[in-house]
Amino acid sequence: MPFHIDPQLERDTCPVADLPLSAVRLMLDANYPWLVLVPRRAGRVEIHDLPRHDRIALIDEIDLAGEALRSLARVDKLNVAALGNQVRQLHVHVVARQAGDRAWPKPVWGAAPARPYPAGEAEALASRIAGRLNVTRIGRIQ
């Protein structure tokens, strides 16, 4: 079965880069610096669905994504979650939180409506993140 990113993730994010395991995407919500890592393994739903070497790689990529966010924004707490309640496809959220942000101290989901990035800002941020990940940015915002 070929790998495809879930249509909901496609709509809610823009491509940043490809790491060895995961497609890295920027959540299109300017309320928070927020990355989504999607392991390029078809049919996986849970982290435990990955073989051990991919689980280890995923943890390393989560760490790399967190460090990239920390290098670009003030981060008081890094939230990492693999919920999958609305999108079954395995994906991991890495959200840079700041004390006093729109949802603080609660989870970001449902706390505030998504705020679109001003024209060009999501692409610029995606490029800066790709640079911090030390990879070439892929794709374009549609």
Automatic annotation (TrEMBL):
Q: Which InterPro entries match?
A: HIT-like (IPR011146), HIT-like_sf (IPR036265), HIT_Hint (IPR026026)
Identify the domain of life: Bacteria
Q: Which PROSITE patterns match?
A: HIT_2 (PS51084)
Residue ranges occupied by any HIT domain in the UniProt entry: 35-104
Query: Pfam families recorded for this chain?
Result: HIT
**What GO terms are given for molecular function?**
catalytic activity
Protein name from the UniProt record: HIT domain-containing protein
Say which species the protein is native to. Propylenella binzhouense
